[in-house]
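Private note to self, pasted from the team thread so I don't lose it. Backbone tokens:
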């Protein structure tokens, strides 16, 4: 009986991160890539209401996506639940009948940066 050794290669996953995507992410910045100079232009997320906790995105192991939005004078929390699917460096979030697919630009233990494939809007979250 022969013993064969095999090695795993990252060739199939070129450019793909191996950090798990599950976790709770706090909305930090949004922006675009400037079409003239190709540079990212990010600003503090205007969705985060002053005086309230920051909005968030939570991706659970069960493929459930929870979006938290704090609003109003009392910083009332509204949670919207949907599902998510990660395929290589694509993240698709579906709420009701509406799906949105984004490129995962960066995924580390501290940050998730995605770019919406339709609108080009970049969203940066921190863990």
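Design output:
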């Amino acid at each position: 009986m022969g013993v064969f050794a095999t090695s795993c290669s990252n060739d199939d996953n070129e450019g793909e991160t191996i950090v798990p995507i599950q976790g709770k992410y706090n909305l930090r910045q949004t922006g675009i890539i400037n079409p003239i100079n190709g540079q990212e232009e990010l600003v503090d997320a205007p969705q985060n209401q002053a005086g309230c906790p920051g909005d968030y995105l939570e991706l659970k192991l069960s493929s459930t996506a929870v979006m938290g939005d704090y609003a109003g004078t009392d910083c009332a929390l509204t949670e919207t639940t949907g599902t998510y699917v990660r395929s290589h460096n694509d993240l698709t979030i579906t709420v009701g009948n509406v799906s949105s697919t984004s490129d995962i630009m960066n995924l580390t233990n501290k940050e998730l940066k995605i770019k919406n494939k339709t609108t080009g809007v970049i969203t940066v979250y921190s863990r």
